[in-house]
Structure formats: C-alpha cells, structure tokens
Design goal:
The protein is an alpha/beta fold. It has a single domain, classed as Rossmann fold, CATH 3.40.50.150. The chain has helices spanning 38-46, 49-55, 58-76, 94-101, 113-123, 157-166, 184-189, 207-216, 235-238, 241-254, 278-289; strands at residues 11-13, 23-25, 31-32, 83-88, 104-110, 127-129, 142-148, 168-179, 203-204, 219-227, 260-261, 267-274. It has an 8-stranded mixed sheet, sandwiched between helices. Strand 7, helix 6 (157-166) and strand 8 form a beta-alpha-beta unit. Helix 3 (58-76) packs across helix 4. The longest helix is centred in the N-terminal third of the chain and has 19 residues, at 58-76. Bound molecules: zinc ion. Zinc ion binds at residues 4, 6-7, 9, 25, 27-28, 30.
Length: 290
C-alpha cells in the first residue's frame, strides 16, 4: 500500500467521493488515486476521447479560453507581470498567446500532441509536446511558471512542483488553479461533483492540502484563495437565474457574498515563490538593517 503523495501519511478509502476509488490521507486529508499511473493516464489522453471532447471545439472555444487567460493574468499581476513564462499543460496555447500579448516572453509545454500543434499552427505560439519529467529545465530560467487546471492531473505532484520550482528565477513565482475539493460544491455533491473527473483528476486538492504540497516542494505560498467560477462565464451565463440562485445560496451558506473566500468556492488558486535559502534570508536581514 502506498502512502500520501504529499505528507507520506497512511491512507484510507475516501468516503466523500465513493464509489469513485479515491484514497484519503489520514493525516492531511489529501484525496488521490495511487492506482492510476502515468501509463494509464497516457492511454486516456491518447485514446481519442479526451482529445475529441476537448479538441473538436478548439477554434469555437478560443475566444472563451483567451478570456479565461485574462482572468488569470489579472490574478497574477500583483506578484509577477513580466519576464520569461512557462505555461505547463498549455492545451491549445490560449494562455501562452494572451500572456505574450501582456508582455511576457511566453512559451508552453503540453502532453497532447494535437493540442501543441494547434497552438503553433493557429496561434503561432511556442508550445511543444512534452511532459514535465521529460523537459530539460534550466535552473533559474523563468520569472513565472503557470499550471491552470494541471496539478490535479499529475501523479506525484510534489516532485513535479519541486522540478518547476527549481526552474524559477530569484523572485519568480508559480501561479496555479485547480478545482477545490474542499469547497461547498464538492461537499454537497460528493461523487456527483462535476470536477471530480476520476479518470483524469488523479489528485483532489483542498486549500490545506494544496498549501502543504507547495510547501513540500520548497515554495513559499504568497496567496491561496478560493474563487467563484463566475469571472470565467460569459455575461449571459452569469445572468442565468440558476447561476444567480446558486451564488445566492453559496453566499448564504458561507455568510459571505464575495466571490472570493478562504475555502468555500469552486476553484482554488495560489501564487507561490521559491523559498529563500538561509544565505538569502541573512542577506535580506542585513539589507533591511543597512
Ligand atoms: Zn497526507
């Protein structure tokens, strides 16, 4: 029996999402599927279904994906707004294209070949077909590394975050978003929660387990919050009575009407920097006192 991918704690069946076969850590609560390995996931991605579902509507969906990218760039801007950026799991390249338009020297990697090709052919952006573990990453190369709805797909996410953290330049940041398995929707819907996607979402993060994963990877968390899905929706969907009713219900349960909350909303976002070395901390202290 394996142990927790984040804290090496013992595992038990995850009752919240049963019958989906997730295991939960008895120490940190992280839920994941150690029964899925890279080979099983590669078969899902290459098997046609995944590409078919996500790939067919590429051009029609592109304006919406660029809008998503602008929401994310606005979130990142207070912490990182220029320099070399690597988008991991770049899909069809919309974020890379939008980040370049915002002034980043942006490129991406994507494990599904047809997506990487679409990014190059339709958007002219530098997205190559690669997985994190196959990438030759130069230490200190990037000001920003982004993972938008990617971390939940990764086997052994801490080891991969650690590799990416080493590729950050001093002051550089990792920015990411995952579905929030610790929020209201996941609690209410259990195995019916639409973001569960148990065949590809190997990891189910809560605010606490995401923070722990980032820290175990040698990162310092600058910001971690949950956010409502609303900013990603087109205006018509935002004004849909069912969406408005859902938001009103969430505001009632959370006793908070704001679209951001420490644990309650559907999406979980974070910004983290590479932890300073002891030497850098001493230099900082001396600099502050000078
Ligand atoms: Zn754990």
């Amino acid at each position: 029996m394996s142990s927790c991918w984040i804290c090496e704690g013992d595992l038990e069946p995850c009752t919240q999402f049963a019958p989906a076969p997730f295991l939960a850590c008895t120490r940190c609560g992280f839920a994941f599927r150690p029964d899925l390995d890279e080979a099983a996931l590669a078969r899902v991605y290459a098997g046609g279904d995944y590409e078919g579902i996500r790939g067919d509507h590429y051009l029609r969906e592109l304006p919406a994906r660029r809008r998503d990218a602008r929401v994310r760039l606005r979130y990142m801007r207070p912490w990182v707004s220029r320099g070399r950026l690597l988008d991991v799991g770049a899909a069809g390249g919309a974020f890379v294209a939008e980040a370049a338009a915002w002034g980043f020297d942006a490129s991406g990697i994507e494990p599904v070949e047809s997506f990487a090709r679409a990014a190059r052919e339709h958007l002219g952006v530098a997205v190559r077909c690669s997985r994190i573990e196959d990438l030759a990453l130069a230490s200190g190369r990037y000001q920003a590394v982004t993972l938008w709805h990617v971390l939940e797909h990764l086997v052994e996410p801490v080891a991969k975050l650690r590799r990416l953290a080493e590729a950050l330049a001093p002051g550089g940041a990792i920015a990411l978003e995952v579905p929030n398995a610790g929020g209201l929707s996941a609690a209410r819907m259990g195995p019916q929660w639409p973001s569960l996607e148990p065949d590809v979402h190997v990891c189910q993060f809560t605010p606490a387990s995401l923070r722990r994963a980032l820290e175990r990877a040698g990162l310092e968390v600058c910001d971690l919050r949950t956010t409502a899905i609303t900013p990603y929706l087109p205006l018509r969907a935002r004004l849909d009575p069912r969406h408005l009713a859902g938001r009103a219900k969430a505001a009632y349960w959370l006793r908070d009407g704001r679209s951001e909350h420490p644990w309650g909303h559907e999406l979980l976002r974070a910004i983290a920097r590479r932890s300073a070395t002891p030497r850098q901390r001493v230099d900082q202290l001396l600099g502050d006192r000078a």
